[in-house]
Amino acid sequence: MKKSKLLTIFVCLVFFYLIYPLFITVVASFNSKDILTFPIDGFSFKWYISAFSSSYISGFSISFRVGVIATIISLFFGIPVAYGLAKYNDKFTKRIKNVFFSPVLIPGIVLSYSLFLCWVFIAKEFDMKLPKLLVLMLAHIIILFPYTIRVIGGAFDKFDFIIEDAAISLGASKKDFILHILLPSITPAIVSASVLSFITSFNNIPISIFLYGRGATPLPIIMMQDVEKYGDPSVAAVSVVLLFITIGITFLIEKTLGLNNYGR
Amino acid sequence: MNKEKSIIFLPSLFLITILVFIPLVMLTSKSLSVDDSISIANYLELFRDSTFHKALKNTFSISFYVVLATLIIGLPTAYFISRTRGRLKNIFLLLILFPLLTNAVVRSISWMIILGYDGILSRLLNNLGFLTEPISFMYSKFAVIIGSTYIFLPLMIVSLIGVMENISEEVEDASISLGASRFKTFFTIIIPNSISGIIVGLVLVFTATLTAYTTPNILGGTRTVVLATLVQQYGTTLGRWELVSSISIFLFALTVIVITLINKGAEAVGGANEKK
After folding, report:
1. Does the predicted TM-score (pTM) go above 0.95?
2. pLDDT exceeding 90 applies to what percent of chain A?
3. I need a labelling partner for B62 at 20 to 30 A (CA). Which of A158, A170, B1, B235 fits?
């Protein structure tokens, strides 16, 4: 069916709405004056130099570490659960499924505050101050857990569990089956779950609000604080760097997994 | 529970218990205690609090307008993309999905530049003669609505494309060759057949806006408070910790109720459709 002109114009406007703000950020990051504005007064690279300043770099390293470790641990816990949920179909399994997906029902900032209360409780009752970085990681694991089960579960739903019986009856051990049949068959799902989880953790702000501290402040929190102060364009420069990293990742997903598999 | 099941499920049940259930129990008991005795005083104080009333009203009206805006913008756009083929379609999908992968601060900065004092919008309206002096649109409900719409539009479009792709183009052609206009076809064929996608998008966008923190914090600040930003403001900024627990419980309960209600509604609609 041919599309009407009116619809085409409308969709062009929508894409303009989606893309133009990002374009503004890119331009604003090259301003020679120290204000966030568009159009800019003069061209300068200096905000990119301050973008690589200590606070942003340490924020990046915190976010990176939290993201990587939370992703790995949530895969470690999530893969067996996704397997179990796909394999068993009894009442107990169905009920337990809701438990595993329950973190999505809790607003990030509420979970953040609840974990903060636990931190305070442990500090008071046992006189033990848990390191903020550890608490951040634990919080991010919980945020990622349901995503992991969902993406990995999608792959297990297509898995024929008769293969398992066949492998075992032909003499394979449980370990052989897991290492040589089960895990290889879901490798693409593991890759996409990892990428998605890492990005989700890296971008999530609400879950960290009550949990960050000195030496453990994720990058988006530092950026948000600068934005609240109406800071200089260096925060825009950091954004542009992140945008390009994201473009790289999006491109990689497109090439390796295909976009149609993502987001459904 | 057999041995395999316990190996598979128990570690994660333990994880969820430690990191979700115990913290939630902690939160609930905190909200119900005043000076070490059980009391609902925190809730009573919260329900009398005028800032809370304002935040509640803002949260709902912002969520309502954002859902409406994403639907109005998303329906034609998703339809357009679902009827595009080949490379072009991949480019469109890339443009829609890309914003979902960038964080909310990055996406909100540009709106500060657009809506700020003497910003792009203010200058545009001045040049067109609607304004006589530069103004700021920041920290208004309008700013939060337009910024949140921008952030959550991709969620709606992605939910809609999936179902729209499954509507056969032959049905549309039949409708048009039988004399219906494209406009009428869109409203009588496409939209009714997209109901399941619309509901998914509705749940996603509504709950996302209901619980959103970053965008309302940056674009709404302390002037346009919503429930999520109130949790943080009463906590870290204003030190009214006694209210933070009760707002948190309230926000959590609200999210669960809204999701349950929409899902129940969806089941009712789905059931009615099947009976036809």
Report:
1. no
2. 54
3. B235
